């Protein structure tokens, strides 16, 4: 899975001179949480709802309403945006985007093709891809199995599954000498898969409906 397959294409952007109050209005109306900041086709930074809220005067301020409105009317996105924006290429693996967001503690990344902004990828997009990759909407059985961490162990385990079918499989943990796998199986005689796995000598750790 590539970033371009899950990103929002042609995201809404703002110019650096956009007033903070206007950016707040846009985020509220569109239901977004971040806006790339672009000037003459070049990405300058990114501004989030938190950046904008942090720029608002404290409730404890001694400024009058008129003074606050005047100051906010002069405050622009350029003054509160994060720069440079942490970005990712459109053809990078989706898992790289997930890792980058986790490491940087951010919820979204502008997506680039060279110097051109082509999309934005968020934590929500990664979760959608995760749900799809693990086949969570396909039902069946979710089976956790510990297999020896040796060549051929996965293929041997898979031979016990038919006539049911494996629609997803993921490594849940690396244990001493073992790998803990979580797989989803659907299809014919799916209820018999745990028994066939055990009969084949596999260590079934957990079984639950999909």
UniProtKB/TrEMBL annotation:
InterPro entries: CBS_dom, CBS_dom_sf, CBS_domain-containing
Top-rank lineage group of the source organism: Bacteria
CDD domains linked: CBS_pair_AcuB_like (cd04584)
Residues of the CBS domain: 7-63, 81-136
Keywords: CBS domain, Repeat
Entries under Gene3D superfamilies matching the protein: CBS-domain
Keyword Repeat: yes
Protein name: CBS and ACT domain-containing protein
């Amino acid at each position: 899975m590539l970033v371009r397959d899950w990103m929002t294409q042609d995201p809404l952007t703002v110019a650096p001179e956009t007033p903070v109050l206007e950016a707040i209005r846009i985020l509220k109306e569109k239901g977004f949480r971040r806006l790339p900041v672009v000037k003459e086709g070049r990405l300058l930074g990114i501004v989030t709802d938190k950046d904008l809220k942090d720029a608002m005067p404290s409730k404890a301020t001694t400024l009058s309403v008129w003074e606050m409105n005047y100051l906010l009317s002069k405050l622009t996105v350029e003054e509160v945006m994060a720069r440079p924006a942490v970005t990712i290429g459109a053809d990078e693996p989706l898992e790289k985007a997930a890792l980058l967001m986790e490491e940087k503690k951010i919820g979204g990344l502008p997506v680039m093709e060279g110097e051109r902004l082509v999309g934005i990828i968020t934590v929500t997009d990664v979760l959608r891809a995760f749900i799809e990759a693990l086949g969570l909407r396909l039902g069946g059985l979710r089976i956790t199995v510990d297999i020896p961490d040796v060549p051929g162990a996965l293929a041997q385990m898979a031979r016990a599954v038919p006539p049911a079918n494996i629609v997803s499989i993921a490594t849940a943990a690396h244990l001493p000498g073992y790998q803990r796998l979580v797989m989803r199986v659907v299809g014919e005689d799916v209820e018999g898969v745990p028994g066939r796995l055990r009969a084949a000598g596999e260590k079934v750790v957990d079984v639950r409906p999909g």
